[in-house]
Structure formats: structure tokens, C-alpha cells
Amino acid sequence: RGMLVAEDMPQLSPVTEDSEPWYSSSSDSPPPSLKPASGGHKVGVLRAKLSGVTKKERKMEQNRRAAEVYRKKKRLAGDSIVEGLAEARKRNEELSRETDVVEQKVVFLKALLRQMASPSDDKKGALTFKPP
Fold this sequence. Notes:
It contains 2 helices and no strands. The protein has helices spanning about 40-50, 55-115.
């Protein structure tokens, strides 16, 4: 017979809580790769049952905390932007004052150069300095 039929299949016993797991050997614990991580499913369910908190309530609380953290970060970012703006305005005022001083120096030096380059009354074409 080329086809498999139900009679040819090995009989498997159903797994129950009392039955021994397939990985069971001489030791009572599963191999390391199959051990549940800390906080595994059964522990979490047991913790939830003991504290009376449902999965939905835990998720809501987690979301509430995450929202608080997000709002705090946004507030800090906004505060830092406001501080940066105040510093930038202060620096702009300082630079504006420096610009005014430099412009005054340029005007003075141009006037000085014109005065030095103007021909004097006694010697035409010669550069003379006339103090202001």
C-alpha cells in the first residue's frame, strides 16, 4: 500500500499537566534552551492573578508611564529651545554692538584717509596730515 492511513500512524498520548514532558530524562528540569526566561508566561499570569491586575490594566499603566516620559522629554526639549533662543538673541545684541563700533571705526578711518590724501594749500599733490 502506497498511502498512509490512520491505522499506520503511531498513537500519541495527549499532553496533560500531569504527563511527563517529551524532553524529560533523568533530570527534572528542561534543557537550558527550553527553560522559560525569568518572568515567563506562567509567572506573569500567576502574578496578575495574585495582584488582581488584568493584562489590559497593566498595558494601560505601562502606556500611562510611557506618555509621562514622552511629555517630560518634550517639555525638556521645548525648554532647551527657549533657552537657546534667549542665548541667540543675547549674542545677536552683542554682535550688533560690535558691528556698530566697527562701522564707526571704518567711517573715522575713511575720513582720515581723505584728509591725508587731500592736497595741502602750500604743496599741491603732496600728502599731508591735518589733525582733526
